[in-house]
Specification:
The complex is a heterodimer of chains A (620) and B (467). By secondary structure, chain A is mainly alpha-helical. In chain A, α11 (281-292) runs antiparallel to α12 (299-306). In chain B, a hairpin with a 2-residue loop joins β13 (381-382) and β14 (385-386).
Amino acid sequence: MSNREAAGRARAGACRNRSPTSLLANGLVAASLAATLAGCTAEVTGGSPVTGIAGGAGAPNAGSGNVIGGSGGAAGSEVTSGTGGAGAGSGGTGNVAGAGTAGQAGAGAAGGTVADNGVPGRSLVRRLSNAEYDATIKTLLADETGYASAFPADTVVHGFTNNTDVQDVGPTLVEQYVVVAEQIAAKAVESTDALLGCALADGESCIRDFIGRFGKRAWRRPLTTEEQTDLLTVFTSARDAFDATTGVRLLVEALLVSPSFLYRAEVGVPVAGAPYSALTSWELASRLSYFFTGTMPDDELFAAAEADALSTPAGLSAQAERLLGTAEARAQVGEFFAGWLDLRVLYRLERDVTQYPSWDDTLPELFGGETRAFATQVVFDGTGDLPTLLTAAYTYGDPALAGFYGGTAGQAVNGIARIELPAGRRAGLLTHASFLATHSKEIQTDPVSRGKFVRERILCQGIDPPPPDLMVTAPTITPGTTARQRFTEHEADPVCAGCHVLIDPIGLAFENYDPIGQWRDTEQGQPIDASGNLTDTDVEGPFVGVVEMTAKLGQSRLVAECFVRQWFRFTFGRGESTADDARITTITNGFDGTNRQVRALLVALTQTPDFRYLAQETAQ
Amino acid sequence: MTKGPVFCIPSKPLSRRTVLRGASVALALPFLDAMRPRVASAQTAAPKRFIVFFSANGMIKDQWQPSGTETDFTLSPILRPLEPHQADLLIMRGLNNEASYLYDPNAHDTSMATMLTADRLLVGPSGNGRAGHVLDGTAAGPSIDQEIARVIGGETRLPSLELGVQSTTTILEPMPLRMSYRGTPGNARSVPLEDDPKKVFSRLFMDSDVPAAEIEALKVQRRSVLDFVLRDFGRLNAKVGIEDRQKLERHANTVREFELSLDNLGGGLDCEIPAAPPDVSLDPFDCVQDGRPAKCFGDFETLGKAQMDNLILSLACDLTRVVTLQWSTAESTVFFKWLGVAGEHHLMSHDARGNRDDLIKINVWYAERFKYLLDALKAETDADGSLLSSSVVLWANELSDGDIHNRRDLGWIIAGQGGGTVRTGRSVQYDRSTTTNQLFASFMTMFGSPTDSFGAAQFTGTLSGLG
């Protein structure tokens, strides 16, 4: 064996080893293994889904008590939420969320008292993303100007802009927070009395009242006496040095530049005997509102916080269900899908119209609109489940797309029509032109990028990089050869084959879709061979074309878990680590128990210890 | 852009302003103590400036390094555009970024995160993603530009300025593809870059239209707001966990710096405000070629020039004395179509033999940009000469040989005399044990905070023979 071959073999091993999820794919072994690792016994007793939405009677998880804390499973843990609302204890100890890892055992819907310590994962104070900043100012002051374009762009991790680990505040942002707050405040005091809700001429009593009322909304919690006094001083000193209107303006600026506004600062209240704190209803109101609506809490959430109605799982899920009914929630779900599929690069998509006669510059917008519309229609108005998102024989979008796809459009409502897709050619998100075109090169498809996307974002299987001494260039287009022929080098060379055997059989199955996402039967005059193979998954086996592949993926537990992983990142604003694997498995069990209903998943996320509790500081 | 290279006309000698600022800094010193390294001695000389000019993917060594002796040398084809400035150059051959080998999950992440920090890359909470990238990782310590800004940044309105040229358009978006880091060892984070020349321009002159009479009121009001903000940070920090506190404290420190910089607000600029930069799309894919939209990176050059003009302006108007300019990123995928090259930069750099001529063209192009910068700095007069003579301008590349991601045997250049601290007109070959840590320790010393170590603790010492 040559050195090169040896390197290839070693690399092949490395590639496969980097598929942690595949190792855990099959239930019981993994369950007991993980349980052993967690130092407790997996006990699958059935009962309501671990974190799922049971559906039917009763509030999810209600009455079961939210068992948290305590080592060694449910025993000895502390019941912190005795009130359950309706549907007392649906046959099990229920919401024992945490480090369970039941794998597939108990057919997903089981879960029950899995090995579980219920300790929340890592949580870090979260700054408002630029989009959240603008949305918050709009909610708070009915000011739709959109100031955050002056801020440095948020950094994107895993497709999302809300990763707290990378959202640091540098000098430019510090300065722009001040400058923008000055603009917002100047605009707000143009009609001072309307802002204050009382007459400035009434003096300090009006201001005190305003500080209490407006401060609570701006900081999303009641202000302490010390804070109110401090703010009043900002007003009075500015009033004395300048004038009363300036005082109000500085008051607003001070509130908006403060960390209590810019961050969702969470402190919680200690839980006796537990290494974590419980979030207050106020803090949970913000978690809910930013998760579901991307902005500050609305009046109902504030009222629920005021009544401390969010400290129970039932209280949280009731509000979660309500928020899912808002227009903002639909937009937020659309944001998730756009991030997951990396559609933010759509806006800069350029294709040569001489090469692709169907191309025109309006297509990227239609493509993006389609994916958002389809996802929200399925999630909110349709069957609501993940398999449908991956396999639906229809889409929603601008009727013009029907022509592009060769489908038939129904009646458009607000510019969006249901489009029946051509059978056997298209089904689900992975056949959307938005995905296909963004995962292509300018003048040829990109089977590697498409295949890697499926591995990394659909299956959550990491792929090693090419070795540093390897020339990695897409093969040049030569007349009369298809991409599949051009990419055979990957198989021939053991150094490449190690990883590409995982990527190419998936990526080349997409070859019927050209660089603008349009169907083609031939390439370079040669017929396209779209056969592929899913290896290292729980839906092994050969297939022909993406429609067959997504039918398989729709059944995959790995795909379901990966989808949960994406939502975990989006919900908690951080990348997950191996410490979160057990929690993700537990949530996935619940997700499976609902036949993978997305809305139920979102509500279930609010029931997790990660959502409700705050890990206490540990000396590092 | 139509304006000439000299667009800031000093209305009074810079030195007077410098003296005034020196006085105000001295008064404020007790407050500064907590934030800044101790300044060795009162600075009486003309102020020094520190500039970093970054270009990616390595150079072609045999076409880059000069021939001849230390003081009598001939510039290579790549550096030939710099011939008019040969006497102002210190060509540093063979420096080694050893810290980049302490942790190397992805060669591009590690080379960039360590380039100016000389400290190891740290993996983030998400671990390693595609191609080993540390998606939310960071450098272990602060970078040399930010450390210098901690020493001299309080003397100007902006402690430092971080400029990018299409620096966020790579398909890969992990943090370590940026070069500047703020914070303390073990608690440092990347500094966001600004890619938009118009935004930079308006930031430079944002308060310049405020009448003098209102400046004092603005200062008082901002201080009042910021004092409250800092009290809110204090109240919050007392309640949150360790990790949160570190994050909030990094933010609060930047607020404190901003508040201090208010001292330098107003009082009239020492220069005339030029016209704003031209309207240029920031989108590398949005440009016109052969009469139709194309993905041609055609604005890269225009954007870069606008950013260099901002850089020169910020120094000439003495708004800051520390500027970094990052052309693209590590692993730069810029397609220099206008140079007639075959493909995008990073991919070509992995076949340095096959793409030799194209890679030389790209490096020559960067040398021409560097020349533009030096021309302009030399044209700006300063108290004791030109802006160039008072500056240390470092042209750094994160790699030497892009094909094998080599961070040893680097080819870096200093231009300018740093106010007499750098002896130029030389081409110096360093031995294999010489680290960038030593260079940065020397920089700290030159900028008033003497030290014999910088970055990763295992690489100590300074670099002899700079001056």
